[in-house]
TrEMBL record:
Domain (FYVE-type) ranges: 119-177
Protein species of origin: Cladocopium goreaui
Segments of this protein annotated with the region Disordered: 65-122
Superkingdom of the source species: Eukaryota
GO molecular function: zinc ion binding
Pfam family, one: FYVE
Keyword Transit peptide on entry: no
InterPro entries registered for this protein in UniProt: Znf_FYVE, Znf_FYVE-rel, Znf_FYVE_PHD, Znf_RING/FYVE/PHD
Biased composition (Polar residues): 109-122
Record key words, sorted: Metal-binding, Zinc, Zinc-finger
Record's protein name: FYVE-type domain-containing protein
Amino acid sequence: MLQLCEDALAPLEGLQGRVDAAEAEAQRAAAEVEQERSRVRRLESRLAKAAEAVQGLESRLRKWLKAGPQDAEQREEKPPPSTGSLEQSVESCGELMTRLESVKPPVTMPSTSRGEQWEPDSSQCSLCSVHLGKRHLRPRHHCRFCGRCVCGKCSKSSIASDHTVQRCCTRCVQPVVQSHTLWRRLTRVAEALAAPTGAGAPWQGFDQVLRHCEEVCGLPPLRTEPTSCGP
């Protein structure tokens, strides 16, 4: 009788082991499910923030294209809620960016840094295609505003930027000459010296006149970068 009971309990012990293993596996699966739910909640939160950011960008782009960048910054408001999906908002922003690229940006005065936006040294001027030589025979120069590799004839102008005098090519000098930096420089000279600026003034170039006025006024010259960019 005792042997019969032992024989009957043996399978039950194996069954209990399988039950314990199944419970442990169920607990691991439940923990993984909870982790996945937590990850999904975080992704949903990030998705909601991304959708809100895209909607805000869409609103600002529409305002910029409608009223111009300066007016849009002055009248910036909270973007209205959108009922569209994130995909629709992204698509709308893409269309607005295409329109934005066709709008001519305002003239700015950033100077390019060497090695980042400068054109590589070339054997020809980017503007007049004249052959460029070494340092003392048609030396090559780089415009500090567009980075073009140009000859000395095409880069005679010098523009004040960030408290230094920067070399500027003939294509960049026209929009840059109206910049706030040069206007401030001219105002400083005009306040210190009543120099003739009418039609009878001996003009030799905009920058040359400013330099002459600064020398007459005794103003300290701005630091000038090296002019030659040859090999």
